[in-house]
Amino acid sequence: MNSTTRVARIHDAIEQGLDATHVQVIDHSAAHAGHAGAEAGGGHFEVIVVSGKFAGISRLAAQRLVYSALGDLMVTEIHALTMHTLTPDKWRERADAGSR
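Predicted structure:
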């Protein structure tokens, strides 16, 4: 499967599954060429997810929501996943801090 399609599928699954206001998917797969997971077809990805569903829950619970939203993609297309899960308020705080 081509990388652009895989990134789009991951993006859409997270956006729809978590009613996310911002999703960024970064494909690090090329840096892991030859790695056992890459050879089996799974990619290495980093995601930034902003969702109101993360409000009032632990980071671990938020990550479980992301895994749930990804469903079978975790088995078929993703070998490794780094997550940054933020509420809309935390996302705004980051943006405000960056603009100073």
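Summary: The domain at 3-98 is CATH 3.30.300.90 (GMP Synthetase; Chain A, domain 3).
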